């Protein structure tokens, strides 16, 4: 039977254009109203080397990339070897490989079963004969895939025309010939792939964005007009996007010499009255730690968008992990309050970034947004109508308050009116030293105690005002799952599938990690029998963080944790559900 959900992986080396193929399939699917999730993987090299892209297109709702791919395209099996364990084909997959590559491949190593279909395709020869260059083999492949599997053919052709529209006319013509050659070759194949053809009804076009792009759009929407950053994988796209678009909105972008300068510039821009932001990854966040303390002490709004990657040190620059949590929560000398948010998908990167600015400006506190490579660099479809979010501003002093201006006046909610240079009567002294209400340096214990209390007092109203939580599943679940960030997608899909089978599983996914929605989570715990924490951190950072302020049910709490480098799969979550649910039925105690 035709399918409403299809996953395709393509593997090649630098210059093969597999990422371009993935982009074009994703664009074509979005144009025809399909739901799309597109991810890519590549080595840590600057140029060249192996790369892969996986695109999931579906007529139904999807929340994560597929565990197995239905179609695999390989230009060179030596390149595929670098992705062993990351790309697994379905037992009945269709595998298309270059006819000239005579490498022997064990189907079992791929996950392929005896019902898999292996097809040798002369990609190189077809490209050379039709387009006059082997570089067009990716375009030939797009034609072949569109014909074999009913991918949106007309939108694909439009995507090709758009990509080569600025080239010479003969270049565009050659690529269109390559696309047509792929279609024609597909018609000659005798293999029956009818049960793998995508079945859907074209709908309204959907917006296709990456998480980094969504964050950048969110920053502009929130009123950010100054960005300072240093390029670092996998956050650089935020800098790239804003360098093009922020000046058009009246803002400025500075590429600094390093991450220390970037966070310093952000604090300076914010002190001057402009909403300011930087983006980085784990190594860069480590360098920003001292300046984070300055933002906390001086109570200057600052937004830091951290795209997590595998660590420690330079670790896995191009792979995802959830191991910056402790650094984001606790990375500082002294008591330096901050807020930590965790977007869970591409659309959420937009909303979390706007919330980060709202919190930073309203409460004059640094806010860290913990994204990760999985959602930051993947492209996903969403509705343009969802990109709307309330925007808040910082508290400015009244004329009466300016008569005897106390920049750090102790208030019930910890927030004091903030001026910026040029406001008459709004001058004040500030630096990284402890200070009194006027900003004058002091080393008195009593003042330090009162000011620490003031700064931390902001966290309670933040927790009350910003506690967006996603919950899935029944209230009386036998098993509850807690996860955060990009783990939401596979967990949600597994929970919904379990619920459809009548299995009582629920999930709790907070967007604000600090201050944590403790009361809402404790209510969730009261309704379930067994509980599991799922995270991509070898040292179980999230679980251990929870233990610092929560009493988790002893004997009924379980942990699934592992290193990053490979995204969490739906199958892994389902395995945990299957393993733990019998314990809920028997109430067998399990030591944590």
Q: In terms of topology, how is this protein built?
A:
Blueprint: E1 5-13, H1 18-31, E2 35-42, E3 50-58, E4 69-74, H2 77-80, E5 89-98, H3 107-110, E6 117-121, H4 123-131, H5 137-149, H6 153-163, H7 169-188, E7 207-210, H8 211-222, E8 226-229, H9 236-245, E9 252-255, H10 259-271, E10 276-280, H11 282-287, H12 289-298, E11 302-308, H13 325-330, E12 339-341, H14 346-363, E13 366-372, H15 373-376, E14 379-382, H16 399-403, H17 445-457, H18 459-465, E15 469-472, E16 479-482, H19 488-500, E17 505-510, E18 512-514, H20 518-526, E19 530-535, H21 541-547, E20 557-561, H22 570-586
Parallel strand pairs: 1-4, 4-5, 5-6, 8-9, 8-10, 10-11, 11-13, 12-13, 16-17, 16-19, 19-20
Antiparallel strand pairs: 1-3, 2-3, 2-14, 7-14, 12-18, 15-17
Helix pairs in contact: 1-5, 1-6, 4-5, 4-7, 5-7, 8-9, 8-14, 10-12, 19-22
